[in-house]
Amino acid sequence: MLIGISLGPGDPELLTIKAEKTLKNADKVYVPGERAKKLVEKYCEPTTLKFPMTSDTEVLEKYWNKHVEEIAPIAQEKTVAFAVLGDVNFFSTFGHIKRIIEQKHPDIEIQTIPGVSAITATASKMNLFIDTSFKVTDGSQQQTKIIMKATELEKQIEELKKQGYNEFILGKELYTEKEEITTDIPEESPYFSILLARKNQNKTKNP
Q1: Three-class SS of residue 160?
Q2: Strand partners, 2
């Protein structure tokens, strides 16, 4: 098993309880740099993987594949954790490791532990309260949209399709006993619902 662990923005007190428990119990822990290493050393003895400071995806792809060759054999037999700053599911090194393992080693189970993201941490540091829509971008083309309080789904999906979105995943009451995740989208949904929409170039029809 491979578990991606979110370490948050850098404050050791902002690690989640679940992250701490997993770091203590994992058979092997990897980190992508010294800042992450310092955050986890209290709970385990991590192995630091080196990644070059470059935006050249061809170079990075070689390093991602190289590290997967080391991680995968262990993850097939034991519990391996890969801990990164921020949240593992947003703009993280772990996302690329996960992608390659899913392609080359589909037998390995992968889980992720969410954490305090740079987005929410920034709002706290800047003393901001945001209650209207906002955009987060790294400058690349927008391919994903997340809609909170997705209650009027028929109307919302119709508008999203006009914008080029063609893949939809609905999450209801996430992290509760009533949790449901589905691609079978109803016309309406409860208040605590989140709709994820993607522009999937390989998809010819909607779920």
Answers
A1: helix
A2: 80, 110
179-207 burial: b if 16+ Cβ within 10 Å, else e: eeeeeebeeebeebbbbbbbbeeeeeeee
Q: 2-6 and 80-84 as β-strands: parallel, antiparallel, unpaired?
A: parallel
CATH no. for 2-119: 3.40.1010.10
What is the arithmetic mean of pLDDT over 53-74? Answer: 94
Angle at 56 between CA 88 and CA 60, to 5 degrees: 50
Q: Is the C-alpha dihedral spanning 58, 63, 68, 69 positive or negative? A: positive
Residue that is written with structure tokens 């980190």 in the block: 31
- Which alpha helices (H) appear in the chain, and where do they start and end? 17-25, 34-40, 57-75, 93-104, 118-125, 153-162
DSSP annotation string for 65-111: HHHHHHHHHHHTTS-EEEEESB-TTSS-HHHHHHHHHHHH-TTS-EE
What residues contact 95, with CB distance under 8 A and at least 6 apart? 88, 89
The rounded distance, in Å, linking the Cα atoms of 189 and 198 is 19
Task: Using alpha carbons, select from 4, 71, 66 the residue that is nearest to residue 36.
Answer: 4
In tens, the pLDDT along 105-155 reads 999 999 999 999 989 999 999 999 999 999 888 888 999 999 999 999 999
